[in-house]
Amino acid sequence: MREFEFNLSMEELEKRTHKDYLMTKKMLTPDAKEYTQLAQGDKDALKHLVKAAYILEKINMQLDCHENLEFKEFLEREISKGNKQAELTKILFDAQKGINAIDTMSNVINLAKGYKSLPGKGVYPEDLSVEEFHAILTKMINEGKIDEVKKILTQRSVVERKGDELEGIDYIDKFKEDFSEMADEIEKASEVSTNSDFNEYLKLQAKALRTADAMLDAYADKKWAELQDTPLEFTITRENYQDEMTGTIVENKELSKLLESHGISPVPKDFLGGRVGIVNKKGTETLTEIKKYLPTLAKNMPYADEYEQNINPNQDTKQTMVDVDLVAVTGDVGEYRGGITLAENLPNDDKLSLTIGGGRRNVYHRQIRFISDMKKLQERLDAILDESQHKYYLDEADHWFTIGHENAHSLGPKKACESLGKYRNIIEENKADMGSLAFVDLLTELGMYSEEQRKQIIVTTIADNFLKSKPTLSQAHRVRTVMQNKFFAERNAYDIIDGKIHVNIDKVVPIAKEMLSQIVRIQIEGDFEKAEKYVKDNFVWTENMELIAQKLQQVNKTLNGRTESKLAEQLLAEL
Asked: For residue 219, what are the CA distances in angstroms to 84, 119, 351, 359?
């Protein structure tokens, strides 16, 4: 049995697990009306879907870090011996779902001494350097091992050493037993759930977990993206924000040309998350109001005549949207690392389902976006926002902005932009933000928003753009926030007056349009150097950002966060 050394002292652990420093997002409880009012068949289905989601978490922990499961077992052994340090460490481990993470201040958190987050996480060999990785790929291509290299560079493989070479093993084959158990649970859910469309999707998803075939995933994704009127939500998320190894290939010009000559596109590895929830009908009805405007937004995207996009102005919009009350979020989607996602627009552009006529689906997380402490919110506004503009700050406006953000992922060039390497995700998230903000005036003209709502979205977005600390370059969602802040400041979208933000409301949307045009041009051209320059020019932490950050730190002491899933725990216990 493997032994580990704790990296955080008791003093540090006691601080980070104290309620003042550890935020808790509460998922549905057993007495929630959303659950109690379900048909019995859907209640029974939830048990199996929750179990499937937690099996997926076990798989993703191994994709995230080679030592995660062994460290978890070590903590459980030590806790059984009465080790308080292990008990507190386990709270943080369960929250961030792994040994390594970043906290809300962008500090690196390593729970086990000597184990740092690797560029290749758990999907590449621990001792594989970037230089050796490139050298092995070059050697294998020159020796004609093209099919082997394709398997290494697919988004769905785990890479291992094979002599002096590498081999890619499809994750379905790598974790065959666990995926098979997941499939069993999903099939059991499909036998009792009350909705035939949802059951058809579950059967397709179960089939995709039994055989290593990307097309089976595509069929399941295609069906999932069509679901609009179902009682339950179950998602296997596959996103590649965590892989920092594969993206280095575009910086090696010789290797990139070699791969291109053989038609090989290096796609970063997918990490897997599970979402189980109950569809909120009222919230969903509000979401779908924007759908009729999407073709108009597509026409108004910068350089729209130069590329194909997921939203075709001349066809039915292949995009469903649901607001979901969460039972459980596991694996990649449930990791609280600096923050946790409010919503997702999937499948991403690199997924096969989009090539066979599939659409996309937006799922919004109600329990994540709820603000539990309005007093703290008011303290924050008092500290950083011009008092005359408090009337325009509305937490619901952040949700409206998020809706625009997720829909904007479906706008713009319909390609995955792998050639932008490590900047790809930063630029895509930047595009989604600016797409949301750039169309606020147009949607107001079209009747989607009132003039009051327009002002609320603009002021709330600018105020929320300020962070507690400067992020690291690996935090795509936060890097783009700093970039936007600098871009807006240089063009007078806001002023800092007596240490507080004053938003120049009418200037914001035109500036957002300008930034959106720059982003889309970079995505069209796919030039790594231009992407790098764009990010470095804008990712600058200014004195004003630091001034507001210091105020935010005084108001909000939170360092870590976690989810609490009491209904999910009860459902697991009932199986």
From this structure: 48, 31, 11, 11
- To which residue do tokens 């089976």 refer? 216
Q: Comparing C-alpha atoms, which of 428, 547, 407, 524 is closest to residue 480?
A: 428
C-alpha atoms less than 13 angstroms from C-alpha of 328 in its C-beta half-sphere: 28
H helix runs in 385-527, sequence order: 395-408, 424-438, 440-446, 451-464, 476-490, 505-525
Residues β-bridged to residue 108? 102
Q: Pick from 545, 463, 413: which is nearest to 106 by CA?
A: 545
DSSP state of 232: E
d(CA 249, CA 267): 10
Asked if 458 and 503 count as a contact pair (C-beta separation under 8 A), the reply is: yes
What pLDDT is recorded for position 518? 98
Q: Which residue positions in the chain have pLDDT lower than 50? A: none
**Both tokens assigned to 315:** 């066809």
Please state the separation of Cα 491 from the chain's center in Å.
Answer: 30
| Number of residues that this document lists for the chain | 575
Decide if 515 contacts 482 (C-beta within 8 A). Answer: no
The C-alpha atoms of residue 30 and residue 567 are separated, in whole angstroms, by: 5
Contacts of 13 (CB under 8 A, 6+ apart): 85, 88, 89, 92
For the chain, domain boundaries: 7-370+562-575, 373-541
Would you state the pLDDT for residue 313? 67
Strands 232-239 and 271-279: antiparallel
Q: Which is nearest to 322 in space by CA: 366, 272, 368?
A: 366
Fold of 7-370+562-575: Fructose-1,6-Bisphosphatase; Chain A, domain 1 (3.30.540)
Q: At what angle do helices 40-64 and 176-192 cross, to 10 degrees?
A: 160
For the record, the structure tokens of 224 come out as 């999932």
Backbone angles phi, psi at 236, to 5 degrees: -105, 110
Residue type, 420: L
Q: State the DSSP code for 47.
A: H
User: Strands across the sheet with 232-239, in order?
Assistant: 232-239, 271-279, 319-331, 360-365, 343-346
Kindly report the pTM of this predicted structure: 0.94
Confirm if 475 and 481 have CB atoms less than 8 A apart: no
CA 552 vs CA 384, 458, 556: distances in Å: 8, 20, 6
3-state secondary structure 107-152: CEEECECCCCCCCCCCCCCCCCCHHHHHHHHHHHHHCCCHHHHHHH
Per-residue HEC secondary structure of 282-321 comes to HHHHHHHHHHHHHHHHHHCCCCHHHCCCCCCCCCCCCEEE
Distance of alpha carbon 229 from the chain centroid: 24
Q: Is 79 exposed, middle or buried (0-12, 13-18, 19+ CB in 10 A)?
A: middle
pLDDT, residue 371, reads 87
